[in-house]
Each structure stands twice: as structure tokens, then as C-alpha cells.
Specification:
This protein has a 22-stranded antiparallel barrel. A 5-stranded mixed β-sheet has the order 3-8-9-6-7. The chain has a two-stranded antiparallel ribbon with strand order 1-2. Helices cover 7% and strands 57% of the residues. It contains 7 helices and 37 strands. It is mainly β. The model is unreliable at 1-31 (pLDDT under 50).
């Protein structure tokens, strides 16, 4: 971690000065894409192959890297707010609840998140430590957000959806870049240098972020300050027949907490090789290793080592059939540093996860039928079958109807089966949670200047986690069931060539109940609003000057009870010179609000201002 220590000592001015020695690279155009170009964006999350967004049979929203830049987002969760089919709630300076459709919690455990194909969820609780995750946001090409099941292609923890973060190849990030953001509550400095020539290239990057303490509803400071450092690299080599990518990073995060400070640190190294056949076939082999450490000054700690291997094959078209198949194996060793207040028994656990999948897309005139199945074997529950059926119908030019049905599971985490704390006993009988998901959707262009995506969904839940009391104590079991019914819709409108509007709405109704004959203790199944909506405006209103205006409304949260709120953000960006972009970001213009909790000690997010500068050469 010596390199991380050096990065922590780099002030913003030094980062900018370091980049100033690099050679020139042209500034990307600020001009926006047409609706037709947006519909032709290639996505991979729904079928694990390149596919036009307009043809996707699923609830997929794409956050482009350009939109992240224009919005002024400085962290991954803040960038995720751009997706209308995600719910993002900020609980402290660095803690977020992120989910699709249902199950919102600071320890949300039903959403799969990937960065360049590397899974970042923790088998400790089947969720993501968002306060430990960071990227150079300028390096993000796009974020594909799939709400609904992704189990057939991505496995057991793609229960409510998949967030697939894809970074730029070295060819797209050559030259030098230095950026800094200075605000009332957050300060960031980053530097990157890349080179590309003759089909091969690299980039190196470093980033340092400091989060000041939040203010509580009562007006005092919340003990939630943090600092985060990241360094990394990416190597790429490509030609018409093959592409090779190697990517690695190391990080450390120190975060305050009222109970005990936390420190996260770790590293990862990922390699991927892709062969492209002249017949349209494609073979991809990927492997990564990772270490993730969680340490508390007082109390529980954990170290997770992961080795993951994955093979995927897109066969050459066979008549009107397109076949994708593959498999993978993940080996993990988890070592818990137990404390008197929290222990995992046994303290050391080796976990293996193996899978094979196949998916066939059959085209017949204006219809496409996709059948898929993943067979997955895990350490806790053995074999799990994850089927998927999807169909599309081209009802006219730029008009698509689609429907889908799938079964997905959330397999046990270590917390579910092996945690021992206070009255909670080890729960060896905890089984996989199950969802059966039905969807019906439309995607198309209307009136020539607008695009619309809308879908109805219904989830049937079975064997949801419960906490049950007994004579010896409390155990986790599967004595809840329920359903979730709702609608998701978003639209995009281009009134002029330089002005783009986005609007989205989600309305849903969850229902949970105890399995007949059981009496589980109260246990939240998630803290989800019934209704939320957003509106975003991206406008380049004069040469070199652009304006972003974002409005979001989130309805009341039931548990912990949190009032509804509306937030308005504004960013004004100016291309001051060929190489330098400066911006002013104003958040929560309409006043303070709480996003998670209702106590006097809950973090309240106030009006704030941030100056941003990005230098590219």
C-alpha cells in the first residue's frame, strides 16, 4: 500500500501540476446524440452480447459517461441517481442504500453490481460496501442498469437487478487529465495519464477524496467523516480478431462511525481475452483475483480473498438461432476477526460457486423468443436452477413490445447462517430466498422527437428472511412471503438539437406476510417508497456553456420512517479554454432534507456549492 500512501499526500494542485507535463489530446465534443443514436447505443447486460438498446427485451436504462460529467456527480452512488429505475438514498457522508424495485437498506442484499465484469458484492452479507467503492468517474464509458431479474446470465444475487459499470478502453482515455472538486462537504483530486498507439495502450490513475462530517437534523455534527484513496491502471491491446484487457487497482478508505471507526483496504487484478471469429462468433475468457479487508478499531474485522474464472461463448449464427453459453467458478476464503459482540462461526470459511448457462435467441419474422437456463452450485444450498423466458415483437418502425418471466434466488450469506451476536444464534437452516418475476414492456419512439420505455412488473416472493424467537434465542429463517407489483416508465425528449430532457417515474406496491403457522419477529424487508420520479435537463445553451438541471422526488419511507422530499440540483459548465473545463455545482437548491431515518441524529443534506475543474491535454 505504499503507492496509496503517496496518493494520500498529493494535494489537488500537485495532481494538476503532474498532469501538465503530458502531451496534447483533443477535447471531446459537447454536442449531444440524436434519439436514433441513443437508441443504437450497444448494451450487453440483458443478453451478454452486443445489442442495440432499442431491441432489448428488458427494463434497461443506460447512464452515459457524458451524462455523469454533465450532472457533476462525484461518487458512484451519486451517478446512479441518474437512472430512474434505481432508488438511491444517502444516509451519511459515504453510506448509501441502493436498490432496484425493492429491498432498500444500508445492507441491501438483492442487487448485483459489477465493474468491468468483476462482482463487487460481499458474501459476508450479499451486498455492497458503497463507502469503499470508488472509480475515476471520467473513465466510465456507461453504466447499464437492469431492473428485474438477471439471474440466468449473472447468477443468484441478481435478484432485483444488475448494475453493470463499464469503463473506457485505453483508446478512449489517452492523454492527460487532472480534475478537482472543492465543496462545502467534499473535496476530490484525481490525475490520469494514458497513451494509445498501434492497437495497444495503457492508462494510470490516482484519486483522493475527503468527506467532511455531515450535519444532523438537530444541527450538530454527525460522526461520519471519511477519506478515500485509489490508484490503478489499465492495459489494452486490440485488433480485428482479438482484444486483451488487464486492469488493476488498490484502495483504502477510513470512515468515522459513532460505534467504531472502519477501515477498508484491498486490491484487485482482472484480465480478459476476447477472440472474434470471421463467422460472427465470439469467445471471452476472464479471470480476476481480489482481496478485500474490513477492519474496525474496536470490534469485528473480515478478510476476503477471491479467485474467479469465467468463460463465455457466442456461437456463430445458426439459421435463425443465436446461441450464448458459458460457465464459471469462484473460489473464496473468508477469515473473520471475531469479537465478543459479533462472531461468525466458523471464523474461517471456504466457499465455492460453480455455474453453467445457455441461452438461445430464436428469430421468426417480427418475433424473437429467448430461452435461457443457468445451473449454479453454491456451498450452502447446493444446486439452484435459474430459468428465463423472454419474447419481443416488432410492432412497427422503432416500436417494440416485450415480455419476460424468470426465477431467481438470493443464496445465503455468512451473516444469514453463521452470525452469532447477542440473542441471535447461528442459523444453519436458512435457505435461499426466491422470486418469480413477470414483466410486460414497451420501448419505442413517439412523435418523432421522443422515446418512451414503460413496463409493468409483478414479483412473487417466497422464503424471504425472517427472524424467529425461540427458547434459546433468535434465529434467521425463511418465514416471510410476499409480492411486489408496479410500473416503471421513462421518456426522453429533444426539443432542439442542443437540449435533451429525461423524465422517469416508478410506482409500486409491496405486500409481505408471515407464512401461515409461523410468528416471526418484526424484520424489515426493505425501506422502499411507493412513488418516486425525476426530471433532468441537459442543455448546451451557447458555445462552450452547458447547463444541467435535475429534480427528483422520493415518497415517504416506512421503516425507518422518513418524510418525502424533493431535491433540485443545478450545474453550470464552461469550456474556458481548449483544455480546461470549469463548473459550478449547486445541490439541494430548494432546501435541506433527510434521506434515511427520522431521528434528531439523522444526517440532513443542505444546500451546498462545489467548484469543479477538469484539465485535459
Amino acid at each position: 500500500m505504499a503507492l496509496l500512501s503517496a496518493a494520500r499526500r498529493l494535494p489537488a494542485a500537485a495532481l494538476i501540476a503532474a498532469a501538465a507535463c503530458a502531451q496534447a489530446a483533443p477535447q471531446a465534443s459537447l454536442a449531444d446524440l440524436s434519439l436514433e443514436q441513443l437508441s443504437n447505443i450497444e448494451v450487453t447486460s440483458i443478453s451478454k452480447r452486443g445489442q442495440r438498446l432499442a431491441e432489448v427485451a428488458g427494463s434497461v436504462f443506460v447512464i452515459r459517461g457524458e451524462d455523469i460529467r454533465r450532472s457533476g456527480a462525484t461518487t458512484i452512488p451519486e451517478a446512479l441517481r441518474l437512472a430512474p429505475n434505481l432508488f438511491v438514498a444517502r444516509a451519511s457522508a459515504t453510506e448509501y442504500a441502493v436498490t432496484a424495485r425493492a429491498g432498500a437498506d444500508l445492507l441491501a442484499n438483492k442487487l448485483l453490481v459489477l465493474i468491468d465484469g468483476r462482482t463487487i458484492y460481499s458474501p459476508l452479507f450479499s451486498g455492497v460496501f458503497w463507502e469503499a467503492q470508488d472509480l475515476l468517474l471520467e473513465d466510465i464509458d456507461r453504466i447499464e442498469v437492469l431492473s428485474g431479474s438477471g439471474g440466468t446470465l449473472y447468477g443468484s444475487n441478481a435478484f432485483n437487478g444488475v448494475i453493470n459499470i463499464i469503463t473506457r478502453a485505453s483508446e478512449q482515455a489517452s492523454g492527460a487529465l487532472a480534475s478537482t472538486s472543492i465543496g462545502q462537504d467534499e473535496k476530490t483530486a484525481a490525475v490520469r495519464y494514458g497513451h494509445w498507439a498501434d492497437g495497444k495502450g495503457y492508462r494510470l490513475f490516482a484519486k483522493r477524496t475527503v468527506f467532511d462530517r455531515s450535519r444532523s437534523v438537530a444541527g450538530g455534527p454527525v460522526i461520519d467523516g471519511a477519506n478515500r484513496s485509489l490508484v490503478g491502471f489499465r492495459l489494452d491491446r486490440s485488433d480485428a480478431e482479438q482484444q486483451t484487457m488487464v486492469r488493476g487497482s488498490a484502495f483504502t478508505t477510513q470512515a468515522e462511525n459513532p460505534v467504531a471507526p472502519r477501515e477498508y483496504q484491498g486490491f484487485n487484478l482482472l484480465g480478459r481475452h476476447t477472440l472474434v471469429g470471421a463467422d460472427g462468433s465470439r469467445t471471452q475468457i476472464q479471470a480476476y483475483v481480489e482481496r478485500f479487508e474490513l477492519q474496525r478499531t474496536v470490534g469485528f474485522g473480515d478478510t476476503l480473498d477471491t479467485l474467479d474464472l469465467d468463460v463465455q461463448r457466442l456461437a456463430a449464427p445458426m439459421g435463425n438461432h443465436l446461441l450464448v453459453w458459458g460457465g464459471g467458478w469462484r473460489h473464496q476464503r473468508d477469515d473473520a476477526d471475531n469479537s465478543p459482540s459479533l462472531a461468525l462461526l466458523p471464523a474461517q470459511r471456504v466457499m465455492n460457486l460453480g455455474n453453467v448457462f445457455v441461452q438461445d435467441e430464436w428469430t421468426l419474422s417480427h418475433f424473437k423468443l429467448t430461452l435461457g437456463l443457468k445451473a449454479e452450485h453454491n456451498t450452502y444450498t447446493g444446486l439452484e436452477l435459474l430459468p428465463n423466458v423472454r419474447g419481443t415483437w416488432d410492432v412497427g418502425p422503432q416500436q417494440l413490445l416485450w415480455a419476460g418471466w424468470s426465477r431467481v434466488v438470493r443464496t445465503p450469506a455468512r451473516i444469514d447462517r453463521e452470525a452469532r451476536t447477542g440473542p441471535l444464534l447461528v442459523s444453519p437452516n436458512f435457505d435461499s430466498e426466491v422470486a418469480r418475476i413477470s414483466e410486460l414492456g414497451y420501448r419505442g419512439q413517439v412523435l418523432g422527437t421522443a422515446s418512451l420505455s414503460a413496463m409493468l412488473f409483478h414479483h412473487d416472493f417466497d422464503r424471504l428472511r425472517s427472524a424467529d424467537g425461540g427458547p434459546r434465542g433468535i434465529t434467521f429463517n425463511n418465514n416471510y412471503r410476499g409480492s411486489l407489483t408496479g410500473v416503471e416508465a421513462w421518456a426522453e425528449l429533444k426539443p432542439t438539437a442542443s437540449w435533451r430532457l429525461q423524465a422517469g417515474v416508478v410506482h409500486q406496491k409491496p405486500r409481505y406476510e408471515a407464512v401461515p403457522g409461523t410468528s416471526p419477529l418484526a424484520l424489515s424487508q426493505g425501506n422502499d417508497p411507493r412513488t418516486r420520479y425525476n426530471l433532468q435537463s441537459f442543455w448546451e445553451f451557447s458555445r462552450g456553456v452547458e447547463l444541467y438541471l435535475g429534480l427528483r422526488h422520493v415518497g415517504t419511507l416506512p421503516q425507518p420512517a422518513t418524510p418525502s422530499y424533493t431535491a433540485v440540483d443545478l450545474r453550470v459548465g464552461w469550456q474556458a479554454t481548449r483544455d480546461l473545463e470549469v463548473a459550478l455545482l449547486l445541490r439541494n437548491l430548494n432546501g435541506s432534507h433527510v434521506e434515511w431515518g427520522n431521528t434528531a441524529g439523522a444526517a440532513e443534506f443542505r444546500r451546498s456549492a462545489m467548484l469543479q475543474a477538469v484539465w485535459r491535454h
